[in-house]
Design a protein that fits this description.
5 helices, about 150 residues
Length: about 150
């Protein structure tokens, strides 16, 4: 038996293996996810995936974006599944003051990135697992300059 048949799932008359790497960010790419909020956003996304029957294989909530590796059954379209609408409502219920930062009840930016995984599942899982570490390294490379006239950070 092939290693790839282990990944197959079944519906009544269908065998499927549909994995997607999805990335989305808060509106204006605000740095909204830090400390306890990262965990709470993760709980919200896990809960929504459970409700829809979608498996999360790997996920990382970075400071200004979210990476998720998902198994979405073929009965759901990727665009129809994307969690942004319902998760916005749940975020606003949890943090009411976020409504003032994000106009028109749109917590997430309009678009998202999605890619099919194919047989590269392990590589993409590793990439997502290391994403937070990579972001921290990249942040250390940026320099904040102070304006000598105003004393404000640039």
């Amino acid at each position: 038996m092939s290693q790839y048949t282990d990944d197959l799932h079944s519906l009544s008359h269908t065998k499927w293996n549909c994995k997607y790497h999805v990335v989305f960010a808060p509106k204006y790419r605000r740095k909204a996810f830090y400390d306890a909020r990262r965990l709470e956003i993760g709980q919200i996304l896990r809960q929504l995936c459970e409700w829809k029957g979608v498996n999360i294989l790997e996920a990382e909530v970075c400071v200004d974006h979210v990476h998720i590796l998902l198994e979405i059954p073929p009965k759901l379209s990727v665009s129809g599944f994307i969690l942004k609408g319902k998760s916005s409502q749940m975020i606003y219920e949890k943090w009411a003051n976020a409504r003032f930062k994000y106009r028109n009840h749109q917590f997430w930016c309009r678009g998202y990135y999605v890619d099919t995984v194919g047989k590269n599942t392990k590589k993409i899982e590793e990439y997502i697992r290391n994403q937070l570490k990579e972001d921290k390294i990249a942040e250390q490379l940026t320099f904040e300059f102070e304006d000598p006239f105003t004393g404000k950070q640039k």
